[in-house]
Specification:
Serine Threonine Protein Phosphatase 5, Tetratricopeptide repeat; mainly alpha; two-stranded antiparallel sheet; 24 helices; 584 residues
């Protein structure tokens, strides 16, 4: 009997131990970590979506990360004279979170997530197509983050190994040179360009996702930042030839700034935001917010649009840009329709145009000259105290969707980060840099001009490469891309901060008046109230690394803005700066 009791007791103990083992093997699905996630195709696909999510934060492209480059340019000024004033004036002390820290923080969140996916993808059994799609997308998104970081902060840590975050000795990374970061970007974008499907091949999958065309476009941008014009030109011509998908200009320029024309024939890559009236209610400004009811829009509209119509009224278009549009009319005498979609001005001509596809109006009806469903008979001011011309791009100023602005992360217009018109104008620039003014370069430019019914240029109009460059840099590009993200980066790569005549030109372009009106007059030193470039501090063409970030990382040192260092000698030693040419 004792033996039986002993046997039964032992069986009970064994059963209990087995039960405990089974219970300990249960994984809590709500408490996953990077150690037990990303080991299947479905989990990696989810992780890629999480990478896309991080380019929709305040410091990436939902507000500050997008608009800060625009205010660094010469065609936008800080009409609120608050928030962005240090970046408009190019003299931030390094203690302002808005640009010194938020852009850094949010782009490194993208780097972190993409590094996680890249650390896992080679160890998961995947089809060739799935592997290429997952790896290609994450390589591009990491490169996009580093493109932002290196053009805002100059020398930044290059982190490509996810395991380095787990070691205190490698987690506190030191600065890499700008060239080292760009070298990595060129390698990653080349790989992404080669393995990703084109948007034609990707079909429905490719809608809103990274494709080979996006990778090729950004590779050309990275190459041109270091004046590698021959290499960039090869990539750009391949895009034009359709090797990375078929791209073409939209018939209507305004289709690039409407909610209902997103991911169109002209778009190489855009950040996806949900349409007006959809999405959640909780505003998710920072990476630490994980609300399931987060809004799915951006706040670029809140910066750009008129305070008179409900926005914050932070940024305004420069009178120089307005007058640049007014200097040249279409072949039938009309105003360049890009003015309508770039700046919220009132023009008598808007009410009399008919029938031409290059005109852009709410509902397609030229009689409906309305802004936010409010009839206007004069140009609304950007900021009710300081004045300024309100910006129309990536706002609903010309789409007539709703009656007033709801500030915050609510605008649903996708931000087109690269358009086919940029490919054409960059190809013209490369052709001019390599071969001087040629008919080939002129043809690229004319293709962009013909979309808005401007007269064709003639190669005889440009006696030198310097003259054609001047036209591309200070006529064609600002009219096509005015008030979009990218102008500040152009000024960097052209070296305009490192030449006295070019810097004086920037001062003149950036003249504005603080008189409470939407001043459209051509301003001079005598008639302007100010110019943001008058306050430029040497080295502050880049933004300083946030002082608290430097304090927290013993291996990190400040950049040229932190140290007020002149980047001019090093730039001029490597690259050409075109002299100012007076155009007819």
């Amino acid at each position: 009997m004792k033996s039986i009791n002993i046997i039964l007791t032992m069986l009970a103990i064994i059963a209990g131990i087995t039960a405990c083992d089974d219970e300990l093997d249960v994984t809590n699905p709500n408490n996953q970590t990077t150690y037990d996630f990303g080991d299947s195709e479905s989990e990696l696909q989810e992780a890629v979506i999480a990478c896309y999510n991080r380019i929709r934060l305040e410091g990436t492209f939902a507000r500050v990360g997008y608009t800060m480059d625009a205010v660094r340019g010469d065609e936008v000024w800080n009409s609120s004279q608050q928030w962005y004033i240090n970046y408009d004036n190019l003299n931030s002390p390094g203690t302002n979170e808005v640009g010194d820290e938020w852009i850094w923080r949010d782009n490194y969140h993208v780097v972190n997530r993409t590094n996680f996916v890249l650390s896992k993808v080679d160890d998961v059994e995947l089809s060739e197509d799935s592997y290429n799609q997952i790896k290609g997308q994450t390589l591009f998104l990491r490169s996009l983050a580093y493109y932002n970081l290196v053009t805002y902060y100059q020398t930044v840590p290059l982190i490509t190994d996810y395991a380095s975050y787990s070691d205190i000795n490698t987690m506190y990374a030191s600065n890499n040179t700008q060239d080292e970061v760009l070298d990595q970007m060129e390698a990653d974008l080349t790989t992404a360009m080669q393995i990703l499907p084109s948007r034609d091949e990707g079909g429905e999958w490719a809608q809103g996702r990274v494709t080979s065309g996006a990778a090729a476009g950004y590779l050309a941008r990275a190459l041109m930042f270091r004046h590698k014009f021959d290499e960039a030109y090869t990539v750009l011509r391949d895009i034009i030839a359709g090797n990375y998908g078929n791209y073409e200009l939209t018939a209507d320029y305004g289709d690039n700034f409407r909610e209902d024309r997103e991911n169109n024939s002209e778009s190489l890559f855009e950040v996806q935001f949900m349409d007006y009236g959809t999405g959640g209610t909780d505003e998710e400004w920072t990476p630490v917010n994980i609300s399931s009811e987060a809004t799915q829009g951006h706040a670029v509209e809140s910066n750009y649009a008129s305070q008179q119509l409900g926005s914050w009224g932070d940024l305004a278009g420069a009178p120089w840009l307005y007058n640049l549009f007014k200097k040249e009319n279409c072949t039938d005498g009309r105003l360049d329709p890009r003015l309508y979609w770039t700046l919220v001005t009132y023009e008598d001509e808007y009410g009399i145009y008919t029938d031409l596809s290059t005109a852009a109006y709410p509902d397609g009806d030229p009689r409906n000259n309305t802004v936010y469903q409010q009839d206007i008979t004069e140009t609304p001011v950007s900021n009710t105290s300081q004045g300024g011309i309100s910006i129309a791009k990536f706002t609903n100023a010309r789409t007539n969707i709703y009656s007033s602005i709801t500030n915050g992360l609510h605008c649903g217009i996708n931000l087109r980060l690269m358009r086919y018109s940029d490919v054409l104008l960059r190809a013209a620039e490369c052709e001019n840099e390599i071969n001087g003014p040629t008919q080939i370069a002129i043809n690229y430019i004319n293709e962009v001009r013909q979309r808005v019914a401007l007269y064709d240029l003639q190669v005889a109009d440009f006696p030198s490469a310097d003259a054609l460059f001047e036209h591309i840099a200070n006529v064609e590009r600002p009219k096509e891309f005015g008030c979009e993200n990218g102008r500040g980066i152009d000024l960097l790569r052209w070296g305009f901060f490192y030449d006295a005549d070019r810097l004086n030109q920037l001062i003149e372009h950036a003249y504005y008046k603080r008189d409470g009106t939407a001043s459209t007059e051509e301003l001079t030193a005598e008639t302007a109230d100010d110019s943001s470039f008058e306050y430029y501090n040497t080295g502050h063409e880049y933004f300083p690394i946030y002082q608290s970030t430097l304090n927290a990382n013993p291996n990190l040192v400040g950049n040229s803005a932190n140290n007020n260092e002149d980047n001019g000698p090093a730039f001029r030693a490597k690259y050409n700066i075109h002299p100012v040419v007076e155009l007819e």
